[in-house]
Structures are given as structure tokens and as C-alpha cells.
From TrEMBL:
<dbReference type="InterPro" id="IPR048258">
    <property type="entry name" value="Cyclins_cyclin-box"/>
</dbReference>
<dbReference type="InterPro" id="IPR004367">
    <property type="entry name" value="Cyclin_C-dom"/>
</dbReference>
<dbReference type="GO" id="GO:0051301">
    <property type="term" value="P:cell division"/>
</dbReference>
<dbReference type="InterPro" id="IPR013763">
    <property type="entry name" value="Cyclin-like_dom"/>
</dbReference>
<dbReference type="InterPro" id="IPR036915">
    <property type="entry name" value="Cyclin-like_sf"/>
</dbReference>
<comment type="similarity">
    <text>Belongs to the cyclin family. Cyclin E subfamily.</text>
</comment>
<feature type="domain" description="Cyclin C-terminal">
    <location>
        <begin position="186"/>
        <end position="308"/>
    </location>
</feature>
<protein>
    <submittedName>
        <fullName>Cyclin E2</fullName>
    </submittedName>
</protein>
<keyword id="KW-0131">Cell cycle</keyword>
<feature type="domain" description="Cyclin-like">
    <location>
        <begin position="92"/>
        <end position="177"/>
    </location>
</feature>
<dbReference type="InterPro" id="IPR006671">
    <property type="entry name" value="Cyclin_N"/>
</dbReference>
<dbReference type="Pfam" id="PF00134">
    <property type="entry name" value="Cyclin_N"/>
</dbReference>
<keyword id="KW-0132">Cell division</keyword>
<keyword id="KW-0539">Nucleus</keyword>
<dbReference type="InterPro" id="IPR039361">
    <property type="entry name" value="Cyclin"/>
</dbReference>
<dbReference type="Pfam" id="PF02984">
    <property type="entry name" value="Cyclin_C"/>
</dbReference>
<keyword id="KW-0195">Cyclin</keyword>
């Protein structure tokens, strides 16, 4: 499974880096509804178990992470030799690796977050280093998220000799230091789990188990997979990106109720996402896959791959 980068002509990337990109990362204002009111409406029911901690504190902490773990659509401006398609190819390959090793969706999105945030701390990374950075990001994410993560030699093997075990270990240390060991963002998959659980909540239900349709979950996750390959997706916070994707599968009212986001905070992302949603709607609806040694309750959480790059070409 070899990662190759297309060198087809694309629109040239900027070769200068405005200082404001480094000092003020682009990030839309969250503008959530007041936490106390929102907590009384919904999160009282989500976090009703005392062992889960104070529900308002949990919700507030999630919002704080949105501000702390910043990302920026202009990240490639720091690397003049890179093009947006190279990032898309890399992330698509990581999705494929995740399916091969039966890794969770959360693992992929942690790796994506680590990769994008690391790249924003660096300058002039050459395209020959992208696969090493990507597979190392996945290596770190798997150790955090998976009960039985693949071994180091398996991550090196999947690069078909492009990255050695020692190179992955060296890059791991570089990434961890660059990220200041801040490795726990609230990913789009975390938001999706939460939003759907709120929308589909029933009285006296077991909130430790998903209350939503697994097919609905994977269909929304597929839309998010496709969107995240486009670097423009980094214009939006993860909570907003997820809320916009959810709008294509449920009512606006449910999304506002579940996310605490006012519609004017979601609408721009919703409109941007429209071509992606339309492209997916023209194909066959994805279904939950069965995986050997994965329980029925967990199978929707396993990252799956489809021809995302082929879908992007349509835009």
C-alpha cells in the first residue's frame, strides 16, 4: 500500500506567509447558547450519572477545547511546495490504513487533527515527508484510542518501505513536542456521537449505548470523511462542521437543539458542504459493514474507506 502524490497542475499556493496567519488563526466564533440554559434543557439527561461528573463542567470543557485546539485552512501557506491535493491524498490513504487494521473512526480523526496542527507549527515541509508525518500521527492516535493498537512494525510495513521504525519514533517525538503533548481534541466523531445521542434520547434509556441508527451514523460520518479531505473544512470548528453535516440528515430544529449552536453560526458551513452532500446523494447509500472480531454494537465506529478521491474530482 504505497502513498503517491499527484503532481497535476493546480492553482498555485501562496508563497508568502502573512504574519496574521501565525498570530491569529482563522476560526469562526462559536456563539453557543448560554451554557446553564442549554445544560438544563439537554445535558442534564446526557450526563445524569454522578460518576460522569458535573454535566455543566463537562459541556464547558468541551467548548474550551474548541478554542484551545485550533486549526487553520491556511496551513498549507506555510509550506509553499505543498498543494491541497497532497493533503487529500494523504488523509484518504490514512482512512484506507484504518480500515485495513480495523481502527476506529475516532483514531483517524485524532490523526487528522494531529497532522493539521503539527503542520501549522512548522514551515517549508517537503512533500517527501508527508507520509512519515501522517503515519506517525496515526501511530500516536492508535496508541491513545485503540485497546490493541497495531505494532510499530505494522505501521512501518504499510508504507512499503518508505518509512522505517526509527523514523516513525523520531517523528513521534517531534510531533509530541510541537503539539506540547496536547492530544485530546473533541473531534467531529465525538461531536457526532453526542449530537445524535441527544436527538435520539428516550426517557429511561441506557445512555451508555447508542440510541441512534447505525446506518444514519455512518452516512453522516461518510459526509464528514469527504469534507475533511478538503483543506477548506479547517475554516470551521469541529462542532460546527458536524452540526452542518447533521443538517443533511435531520431537521434544523433538532440540530440547533442538540448542538446549542444558533443557525447563523451553522449556515455558512452548511452552504459550503452542499456540493459534498449532493455528490454523496447521487451514489448508493453506505451501510454499516461487518468486521470479524468487532461486536455489533461497535461496528459503526470502525473507519471505512470508499473512493473519496474519485468523488472529490467531481467538484
Amino acid at each position: 500500500m504505497v502513498l503517491t502524490f499527484c503532481t497535476d497542475p493546480l492553482q498555485p499556493e501562496p508563497t508568502t506567509v502573512p504574519e496574521q496567519i501565525l498570530s491569529q488563526p482563522a476560526k469562526p466564533e462559536l456563539r453557543q447558547l448560554a451554557v446553564p440554559a442549554f445544560f438544563k434543557l439537554k445535558f442534564h439527561f446526557i450526563f445524569y450519572m454522578n460518576s460522569w461528573g458535573n454535566s455543566e463542567a463537562v459541556w464547558t470543557n468541551m467548548l474550551k477545547k474548541e478554542t484551545k485546539y485550533t486549526h487553520n485552512k491556511n496551513v498549507l501557506s506555510l509550506h509553499p511546495s505543498l498543494q491541497p491535493k497532497m493533503r487529500a491524498i494523504l488523509l484518504d490513504w490514512l482512512i484506507e490504513v484504518c480500515e485495513v487494521y480495523t481502527l476506529h473512526r475516532e483514531t483517524f480523526y485524532l490523526a487528522q487533527d494531529f497532522f493539521d496542527r503539527f503542520m501549522f507549527t512548522q514551515e517549508n515541509i517537503h512533500k517527501s515527508k508527508l507520509q512519515l508525518i501522517g503515519i506517525t500521527s496515526l501511530f500516536i492516535a492508535a496508541k491513545l484510542e485503540e485497546i490493541y493498537p497495531p505494532k510499530l512494525h505494522e505501521f512501518a510495513y504499510v508504507t512499503d518501505g518508505a518509512c522505517t521504525e526509527d523514523e516513525i519514533l523520531d517523528m513521534e517525538l517531534l510531533i509530541l513536542k510541537a503539539l506540547n503533548w496536547e492530544l485530546y481534541p473533541v473531534t467531529v466523531i465525538s461531536w457526532l456521537n453526542l449530537y445524535l445521542q441527544v436527538i435520539c434520547r428516550k426517557e429511561h434509556c441506557n445512555m451508555l449505548l447508542p440510541q441512534y441508527s447505525q446506518d444514519t451514523f455512518v452516512q453522516i460520518a461518510q459526509l464528514l470523511d469527504l469534507c475533511i479531505l478538503d483543506v477548506e473544512s479547517l475554516s470551521f470548528s469541529y462542532s460546527v462542521l458536524t452540526a452542518a453535516a447533521l443538517c443533511y440528515h435531520t431537521s434544523d430544529g433538532d440540530v440547533v437543539k442538540a448542538s446549542g449552536l444558533q443557525w447563523d453560526c451553522v449556515s455558512t458551513c452548511y452552504n459550503w458542504m452542499s456540493p459534498f452532500a449532493k455528490t454523496l446523494s447521487e451514489g448508493d447509500q453506505i451501510k454499516v459493514k461487518d468486521f470479524r472480531q468487532v461486536t455489533d454494537e461497535d461496528r459503526h465506529n470502525i473507519q471505512t474507506h470508499t473512493n473519496y478521491l474519485g468523488l472529490l474530482v467531481r467538484f
